[in-house]
Amino acid sequence: MFPDITRDDGFRLETRRLWLRWPRATDAVEIARLAGDKDVAQMTARLPHPYGRDAAERFILDTRASNAGGRGIGLIITKKHKPTEPIGAISFRESPRNDALLGFWLGKPYWGNGLTTEAAQGMIDTLFTLTQVREVRASTRVINPAPRRVLEKCGFAYEGSGLELLPARGGMESCDRFRLDRKAWASLKGWSMPALQRDEPGQALAG
Q1: Where are the alpha helices (DSSP H) in the chain?
Q2: Per-residue pLDDT tens digits for 50-59
Q3: Which residue range is the domain that position 133 belongs to?
Q4: Number of domains in the chain
């Protein structure tokens, strides 16, 4: 589903304040610290709590393998002036419906500054520009309004609520469901297109 350009670990996405890149082994300590916060993990589908360095290292390996195989695009969110320091993660995964599932999380110290919305808009622009995917889907826990606001700012339409399996939460949870199709995205093209770059050789319900 995902093109060759995203399968190269030099792939990087630039937005106004952020760099989104492949995860690296050196990210493990900071990912474990941020994702290990209970307030972050409990609102996601796939981040267990507690979340230690071993889990972060598995996440990095799994994400790199998925990226290289074209099964998804999983990127680490960093600030432009500190590109080696992770502040969160964002991804698209394939679904059986041949659409893309959006997931993201952001470290608690960085909440409230519009960074997740900026990262999500850049990822969505890239997905619709580089692939033939017709629509993106996302879900949020009904008790968590913050990602709902992110999705709405990105143009997603609410499609109702229902029970969904959240593996790291141990079962089914009530979630709100959202969808963004290519036509709706095209109508919102006032967004600035992200700059696609390649590093010199030397990286919703989320998790």
Answers
A1: 28-35, 38-41, 53-68, 115-130, 145-153, 182-187
A2: 999 999 999 9
A3: 4-188
A4: 1
